[in-house]
Structures are given as C-alpha cells and as structure tokens.
Fold this protein.
Amino acid sequence: DPNSIKRGRALYSTYCAQCHGKYHDGNGTVGQSFHPLPTDLRTIKVQTLPEGVLFKEISYGVPNGRQPPLATTIEVMDRWRIIAYLKSLGPRR
C-alpha cells in the first residue's frame, strides 16, 4: 500500500535513521558510537527476513545487539509501516 510505505518512510526518519542512517546503511550519526555498528537494512540477509521477524526485533530488541526494544515507543501499526517501507527498498545493488 503506497500510503503505508510513505508513512513508514516518515516513521523511519523519526525513529530509525539516527542509528541506521539516512541511506539505511548503518551509518547514522548516533549509531557510529556503537559496537558493532548498526545493521545495513538493505543487505540481502535483512531484506529476506520474514516481516514477523523484523517486527519482533523492532518491538523487543535484538539480544546481544544494539537494537533497543521499541514496543512502547512506536505504535503497532507504525512498526508494520516501517517494515513495509524497508521491504519496499529491496536489497542494495
């Protein structure tokens, strides 16, 4: 749905870009202080993950990673919109 993707893009800018970067490559300004660096969201590995896995990781964080749990920060439907936006990008070429 184009409207969900458009909204997901705006939500990504608000909640995700500081760590994952404007270009989804893990080069956000805040994320540069992390070890390991944030994930490039356009890798084949991420782009082929089922949407449910992405939802779980956004919602509850990633064990031994730097992804914080955002279930209480981002509304349920907005998390799905972010995922729709990310999936619409496809893998980096």
